[in-house]
Design goal:
Helix content: 25-40%
Strand order of the largest sheet: 3-2-1-4-5-6-10-8-11
Oligomer: single chain
Radius of gyration: 16 Å
Largest sheet: 9 strands, mixed
Distance between the termini: 23 Å
Shape: globular
């Protein structure tokens, strides 16, 4: 299975690309926004494709060509304005869903945010981000794709533990980015995650075992 990672230059994306690249089960292609970003990946033997989430659906579909699955792990980042939240986290995600349908790719994993599906639980300080995630997730739910929507809690840069907690609804919690990447990797071929959405935080259960409880 060849997997396109959208947002491959991000903090979760980079770790996921490495996990895919090291695995014997998968091939990986990193979708990048700028040509100058390719060198770092190509030095590690990772195939790259250049496309912008602010570009056209056709551009993204072209980057997807020849892949079997797509992971949307992109984000505008906390340092950008609300315009980028709309253009990347919402419209960019929806365009990627449309591109996957156009390219005939069925498997799609979306990295969302904890409780993005429940308006009453959105953080007031970053509510526009939650709005973007909510409606991007809705677009995926309403598509023809075989989706998994992962809603991680507060993201940490500390080392992963390989232990998680998953459920349809979880209270506030945090999780290392490495464990999010590991969870994405395990979801790709885990049929129990097909057409499901779930919250994700650190826990006491091995990733593979936890996903079988959904």
């Amino acid at each position: 299975m060849k997997v396109l990672v959208v947002g491959a230059n991000g903090q979760i994306g980079k770790q996921l690309v490495d996990l895919l690249n090291e695995s014997k089960e998968y091939e990986v292609r990193a979708m990048l926004r700028k040509p100058e970003q390719t060198k770092e990946f190509e030095q590690r033997g990772v195939e790259t494709a250049i496309a912008s989430l602010e570009g056209t659906v056709k551009d993204i579909a072209s980057a997807l060509k020849g892949c079997d699955a797509v992971v949307f792990a992109a984000g505008s980042g906390g340092h950008t304005g609300l315009d980028k939240t709309l253009l990347v986290d919402l419209d960019g995600a929806v365009k990627t869903v449309e591109a996957a349908e156009q390219a005939g790719i069925e498997r799609f994993i979306m990295v969302s945010a904890l409780q993005a599906h429940k308006r009453e639980n959105w953080s007031e300080t970053i509510k526009p981000y939650y709005v973007a995630k909510h409606y991007a997730d809705r677009a995926l739910l309403q598509s023809s794709l075989n989706y998994t929507i992962i809603r991680p809690g507060g993201l940490l840069n500390e080392a992963g533990t390989g232990k998680i907690k998953v459920a349809e609804n979880l209270d506030r919690g945090t999780i290392p980015r490495n464990d999010v990447a590991r969870t994405i990797l395990s979801c790709l071929n885990e049929e129990n995650t097909f057409r499901k959405s779930f919250d994700l935080i650190s826990g006491d259960t091995d990733v593979a075992e936890a996903l079988k409880t959904l």
